[in-house]
Amino acid sequence: MKNIITYLSKSVFYLFSILFISSCGNVKRVDTTEVKAKMEEYKIKRISDTSIVEWGNEEGEKIAEFFTKNPNLECQDEYSVEGSLVNLVSFGSGKFSHKNKLVNQLVEAYQYSYETQQATGNNLQKIDDSTFVFSFPIPEKTMIFSKCKKHLVLAFINKSKLIKDHNSEKSSQK
To answer: Is the pTM of this model over 0.85?
Structure first.
């Protein structure tokens, strides 16, 4: 009986020794270039205000293009386009009111230009630390202008969304 116990304990010892040695020998090699690239993505990068404004204009132009390509949209006061909240403003339906003073001034300027038949264009304004508003007149040939009597588009673009979208675009191009 004692021999059997000694034999079993030796067998178990050898079995665990073999398992331990074989488990240490199979270490996977990590591709360091891939790891370095991932680490580079997580580095804190300084982004200039000029770049953010440029990206905001690009995003705003995409929204303006959406309204040009879809002239027969249903009458609504708000849309969500390209992940941004878009308000449509009518100049004839009383005074437009927004919680941000700059937005109200922007609408007043567009309304004055519309009433005096002055040409207006697209505009990007920073309204607070995290939000931009891209504004543009609605093309007269659209149903939103003729039937819904909407004259101006205000697209509220989030700064962090701009940065995130641009970084994901950059990483997908690599």
So the answer is: no
Distance CA 73, CA 88 (A): 12
The answer to whether the beta carbons of residues 145 and 71 sit under 8 Å apart is: no
Digit-coded pLDDT (tens) for 121-174 = 899 999 998 999 999 998 888 888 888 888 888 999 999 888 888 777 665 555
Which of 142, 157, 163 has the alpha carbon at shortest distance from 61?
Answer: 157
* SS3 state at 85: strand
Which residues are paired to 126 by β-bridges?
132
Classified as helix, coil or strand, 173 is helix
The SS3 call for residue 57 is helix
Mapping DSSP to helix (H, G, I), strand (E, B) and coil, where does residue 78 land?
Answer: strand
For residue 29, the 8-state DSSP code is P
Tokens matching residue 16:
């665990």
Contact status, residue 69 vs residue 58, Cβ threshold 8 Å: no
Residues in the chain: 174
How many whole angstroms separate alpha carbon 171 and alpha carbon 174?
A: 5
